[in-house]
Amino acid sequence: MTTKKNFYHEYEVFSKRSATSPFQHQFCLLAPNEDIALVMAQENFMRREPVEDIWVVKRENIRSLDPEEKRSLARLDNKDYRTAKGYGYLKKKWRQYEQKMLDEKEILSWGGDGKK
Q1: What's the pTM value of the predicted model, to 2 decimals?
Q2: Going by DSSP bridges, is the β-strand pair 53-58/9-16 parallel, antiparallel, or unpaired?
Q3: Could you give the CA distance from residue 23 to residue 13 in angstroms, rounded to a whole number?
Q4: What's the confidence (pLDDT) of residue 1?
Q5: Helix (H) or strand (E) holding 58
Q6: Measured between alpha carbons, how far is 29 from 11 in angstroms, rounded to an integer?
Q7: pLDDT on residue 25
Q8: How many other β-carbons are positioned within 10 Å of the β-carbon of residue 15?
Q9: Cα torsion at 14, 21, 19, 35 (round to 10°)?
Q10: What letter does residue 111 receive in the DSSP assignment?
Q11: pLDDT of residue 112
């Protein structure tokens, strides 16, 4: 018994509003080929809002990461200094440092010329 080939394929539709904007995923659709998928995407999307460009990609041609590759994205060590939250403590530390310096200057000013 031979398996029947699917007539329809899944396509993902991406568009961008202007020449400088990034492509964004809009929706997926079923179509027998790329040409009809493009026409369907234009009919369903481009008539509703202005579009600079449109991509129609067969879903099977989109590659995603497998579980092994996803694990490689995990951080190897603590790199909080690379995120904005990693610097949150600096304002408090700087204030403490400035206060300490002010206190030392103040203390030195109390000594006068060093004679009693």
Answers
A1: 0.56
A2: antiparallel
A3: 10
A4: 45
A5: strand 53-58
A6: 5
A7: 93
A8: 22
A9: 0
A10: T
A11: 64
d(CA 9, CA 53): 22
One-letter amino acid at 17 equals R
| Token couple for 112 | 């006068």
Lowest-confidence region among 30-39, 91-100, 107-116: 107-116
Comparing CA positions, the residue from 48, 35, 33, 42 lying closest to residue 13 is 42
Cα distances (angstroms) measured from residue 97 to each of 72, 103, 113: 40, 10, 26
Q: What integer best gives the mean pLDDT of the chain?
A: 81
Phi, psi of 54 (to 5 degrees): -140, 140
Task: Tell which residue, 58, 28, 50, 32, has the closest CA to residue 41.
Answer: 28
Q: Which of 83, 72, 38 is nearest to 56 (CA)?
A: 38
DSSP H helical ranges for the chain: 34-41, 67-71, 90-110
What pLDDT sits at residue 23? 94
Report whether pLDDT(3) > 50. no
Is 40 within 8 Å of 26 (Cβ atoms)?
no
Identity (one letter) of the amino acid at 87? Y
